[in-house]
UniProtKB/TrEMBL annotation:
This is MFS transporter. Its main location: membrane. Pfam families: MFS_1. CDD domains: MFS_ExuT_GudP_like (cd17319).
Length: 459
C-alpha cells in the first residue's frame, strides 16, 4: 500500500511539474508578443485623443465632431467583428492576425494625410473595419493554449497592455506631437499618426513567422510537453461542449447569456473609452480650473498616472481572483468603484484630489476587464466560442462610439465635461448591477427559441 501511495504521489508530482513547465513555456512565448501587438493596436485606436489637442484647431473640429470621429471607428469594427473572428477560427491566427495588422497599420498611418474632417470620418470607419477581430481573436486564441485555471492571471498580464498604452503611449504621443512638429513638413499630430502607424505594418510580417496556430503544431515544445497540452486542452473543450447543446452560429449570437455579457462589457468599456479619449481634455480642463499651465508633453505624463496605478492593481486583482476562484464580484466590485469615483472627481476642490478620483475610476475599469473575459469562455466552445466572444466584444465596443460621441455632444451642449462623465458613472453602475443579476439568474437553457435545424449547425 505504501509503495502504491508513493507511486501515486510521484506520478502526481510529475504531472504538476509538467503542467507548470508547459504553462510557463507557452506563457513566455505568447503573452509578451501578443501584448506588444495589442499595445500598438490600442495606441493606434486611441491616439486621436492626443491628436485632438492640436488637430481640432487645424481641421476646425467641435467637441461633437471629435466625438463622432472617435466613435466612427466602431461602426466598421462592429460590422466586421463576428465575420473576422469566424475567419480567424477557420484560417488560423497566424494568417488572420497578420492580415489585420497589415491593413490597420496602413490605414492608421494614412490618417497623417487627412485634408478635412470628412476624410477623417471615412478613414476612422475603415480603420475599425480593418482592425475588427483582433482583440476577440486574441481572446479566442488564448483559449487554445491555456487551461482555464490559469486564464485570469494570464489575461491580466496580457491586458496590462491597456494601461501600458497610456503609461508609455501617452507621453510618447505627446512627445512626438511636441518635438516632431514640422518634421517632413507636417504638423505634430500628423507626424504622430505616421510614426505610430508604421509598427503595425512591420509586425504583420513578424506575426506570420512567429505565431503558431494550435498546440499540436508547436515545434518549440518537446514531444511530451506538446502531447500534454494537446490532451489537456482537448479535454477542457470536450467538457465545455458537453455542458452546452450543439448550436449554430446564429443561435450563439442571440443567446441571452452572450447578449448579457455584451451589455456588461459595454458598461465597463464605456468608462475605458471615456478616459482614453477625453482624459487629455480633462487634464487640460483641470489646469484651466485651477490656474495651472501644462505643455502637451506634461499633459501626457499626467495622463499616464491613473493607468500606471491601474496596471499594478489589475495584476494583483487578477491573481486574487484566481487564488479565490471567485469571478462575479471580481467584475462587479471594481466596476462599481469606477461608477462612483468618476462623478466624484468633478466636485473636488483640488487637481490632486480630482486626479485621485479619476485614478480610482481607471483602477475599477482595468481590474474588471481580465476577470470579465474569463466568464464567456466557461460556456462557449468551438465555432460558438469564435462567434460568441466576437459578439460580446462587438456589443461592448458600441461604447467606443457612444462614450466619445455622447461625452463630446454633452460637452458642447453644456459647456462642461461634467454631464458626460455623469453618464459614464451611470452606465458603469448599470453594468455592475447587471453582472450580479445575470449571473444569479443564469440557466442552462439559454438559446434563442428557434426551430432546430441540425443539418445547418456549425461546429
Amino acid at each position: 500500500m505504501t509503495m502504491t501511495n508513493a507511486g501515486a504521489t510521484a506520478s502526481a508530482n510529475e504531472g504538476m511539474a509538467m503542467e507548470t513547465r508547459v504553462v510557463k513555456k507557452v506563457a513566455r512565448r505568447l503573452i509578451p508578443f501578443l501584448a506588444v501587438l495589442y499595445f500598438v493596436n490600442y495606441l493606434d485606436r486611441t491616439n486621436i485623443g492626443f491628436a485632438k489637442l492640436t488637430m481640432g484647431a487645424e481641421l476646425g473640429m467641435t467637441e461633437t465632431m471629435f466625438g463622432l470621429a472617435s466613435g466612427l471607428f466602431f461602426v466598421g469594427y462592429l460590422i466586421f467583428e463576428v465575420p473576422s473572428n469566424l475567419a480567424l477560427h477557420r484560417f488560423g491566427a497566424r494568417l488572420w492576425i497578420a492580415r489585420i495588422m497589415l491593413t490597420w497599420g496602413i490605414l492608421a498611418a494614412a490618417l497623417a494625410f487627412v485634408p478635412n474632417v470628412g476624410s477623417l470620418y471615412v478613414l476612422r470607419i475603415l480603420l475599425g473595419a480593418a482592425e475588427a477581430g483582433f482583440f476577440p481573436g486574441v481572446m479566442l486564441y488564448l483559449t487554445f493554449w491555456f487551461p482555464k485555471k490559469y486564464r485570469v492571471r494570464l489575461l491580466g498580464l496580457f491586458l496590462l497592455t491597456l494601461p501600458a498604452s497610456s503609461v508609455i503611449g501617452a507621453p510618447l504621443s505627446a512627445a512626438i506631437m511636441q518635438f516632431g512638429d514640422g518634421l517632413f513638413g507636417l504638423s505634430g499630430w500628423r507626424v504622430m499618426y505616421l510614426i505610430e502607424g508604421l509598427p503595425a505594418v512591420l509586425l504583420a510580417f513578424v506575426v506570420w513567422f512567429y505565431l503558431t496556430d494550435r498546440p499540436f503544431q508547436a515545434k518549440w515544445l518537446d514531444d511530451q510537453e506538446r502531447a500534454w497540452l494537446v490532451d489537456t486542452m482537448a479535454a477542457e473543450e470536450h467538457e465545455t461542449a458537453a455542458h452546452q447543446p450543439r448550436t449554430s452560429v446564429l443561435r450563439t449570437l442571440c443567446n441571452p447569456r452572450v447578449l448579457g455579457f455584451g451589455f456588461v462589457y459595454f458598461g465597463i468599456t464605456y468608462g475605458l473609452y471615456a478616459l482614453s479619449f477625453f482624459l487629455p481634455t480633462i487634464v487640460a480642463g483641470l489646469a484651466t480650473t485651477f490656474g495651472a499651465t501644462y505643455s502637451v508633453f506634461q499633459t501626457g505624463l499626467i495622463v499616464a498616472v491613473p493607468f500606471l496605478v491601474g496596471a499594478v492593481a489589475m495584476v494583483l486583482w487578477s491573481r486574487h481572483s484566481d487564488r479565490t476562484g471567485e469571478r462575479v464580484w471580481h467584475v462587479a466590485a471594481p466596476t462599481l468603484l469606477g461608477a462612483v469615483s468618476i462623478p466624484v472627481a468633478l466636485y473636488l476642490d483640488s487637481p490632486f484630489a480630482a486626479m485621485a478620483a479619476v485614478t480610482l475610476c481607471a483602477v475599477g475599469v482595468l481590474c474588471a476587464m481580465p476577470v470579465f473575459w474569463y466568464l464567456p469562455t466557461t460556456f462557449l466552445a468551438g465555432t460558438g466560442a469564435a462567434a460568441g466572444i466576437a459578439m460580446v466584444n462587438s456589443i461592448g465596443n458600441l461604447s467606443g462610439f457612444g462614450a466619445p460621441y455622447v461625452t463630446g455632444w454633452l460637452t458642447d451642449l453644456t459647456g462642461s465635461v461634467k454631464a458626460g462623465l455623469w453618464v459614464v458613472g451611470a452606465v458603469m453602475l448599470i453594468a455592475a448591477v447587471l453582472t450580479v443579476v445575470s449571473q444569479s439568474r443564469r440557466s442552462g437553457s439559454a438559446d434563442c427559441p428557434t426551430e432546430e435545424q441540425p443539418e445547418a449547425r456549425l461546429r
